[in-house]
Structure formats: C-alpha cells, structure tokens
Design goal:
Elements lengths: L2 H19 L5 H29 L2 H10 L7 H17 L3 H19 L14 H16 L16
Length: about 160
Amino acid sequence: MTTTTTHTAAVHAPRAAFASAQRPLAAADRNTGATVLRVALGTMWISHALLKVLVFTLPGTAQFFASNGLPGALAYPVAAAELLGGAAIVLGLYGRQVSLLLVPVLLGAAWVHWPNGWVFTQPNGGWEYPAFLAVASLAHWLMGDGRFALRRSAWLAPR
C-alpha cells in the first residue's frame, strides 16, 4: 500500500462509519425499542398504583383526592386502573389502547400537582413525573407494542 492509499483509507473510514450511523433503524431495532418502552412504562404504572396502595394507603389516597377537590372515592378506580393497566401494558394486552386510555389519569395528576412546581421531589410532589408518564404513554400509543405482545388491536391505534 502506498502512502496515498493509506491516507485515503484513513480519511474515508470515519465518513463510512458516519454514513452507517445515519441508516434508518431496522424494523427489529424499532420493535426492540418499543418493547423496552412498553415494559418500562407498564412497570412505572404498576409502581404508581402500588404507591397509592402500599405507601399512602387507599383511604389516605382518597383523603388526598378529596383535599384537592376530587371525589375521594375516585382513588379506588384510579388505583385499580393504574395497577391493571400497568400489568396489561407490560404483557402487551391491548397495550397501545391501555396507554391511551390512561393518559387522562396522568393529566389529572399533573393538574393536582401543578401548584407544587415542576420537580416531583417538591413537597407534595411536582407535575413533571405525571407529565413525563403522559408523554411516554402517548409515545407508546404512537410507536406500538414492539415484540412479545400477547394481544394487539388496530382499534384506536394510529396508522
């Protein structure tokens, strides 16, 4: 190899690496990413529900709802929806539809926590965590369930 050939190969190697990095993601990569999002999101929904059940208790959550002008009894179906919805999302049981249907729960949580400020570590919690989960739920609805979903449906799913 001559010096010119070595120099040319060294100059073009980074371009080739950059060009390969610019390729669109393969369908398998997108499906894997959607699966990771689905499982993480479902797990977060479950933990959000278990916080209400195990830490604050359902009667305590009902009192919190009432103190914010919401019917206290709403705490029970909200916790059930979060727990069952999270499990459905993890398993891929109509996960996209469940994510979409749970968005109003998070928007309600963001509304309740709005006066506390942005960061969720503020006293009484801020609105950034529920807002992020709402956006992640919408992303899951848009992207799809990924791999290993048990039951899919085109109903309410974007095309």
